[in-house]
Write a structure and sequence with these properties.
Blueprint: H1 2-19, H2 24-37, E1 44-50, E2 58-63, E3 68-74
Length: 75
């Protein structure tokens, strides 16, 4: 019984942390940090655009409650 309650609380806590939207600049910084830790090291651009204006660009994140997207392009 205790394990079931603990598991349920854990799931709710995780869901809440993933559901919290982040500001666009904060998310863009986190994505850039992950890219720089890999092989990209500045050989890219990240842009914050309105959702309808992303076009065919590669979308790597959503922010502002889905109103904006972060796009990635190689330099």
């Amino acid at each position: 019984m205790k394990k079931t309650i603990f598991a349920a609380l854990f799931i709710v806590a995780c869901a809440n942390s993933f559901a919290t939207p982040k500001p666009c600049e904060e998310l863009k910084t986190e994505i850039a940090t992950k890219l720089d830790a890999g092989k990209a090291k500045g050989a890219y651009t990240l842009d914050i655009v309105e959702t309808g204006k992303a076009g065919s660009a590669k979308v790597v994140g959503k922010c502002d409650k889905g109103a904006k997207k972060i796009t990635y392009a190689k330099k």
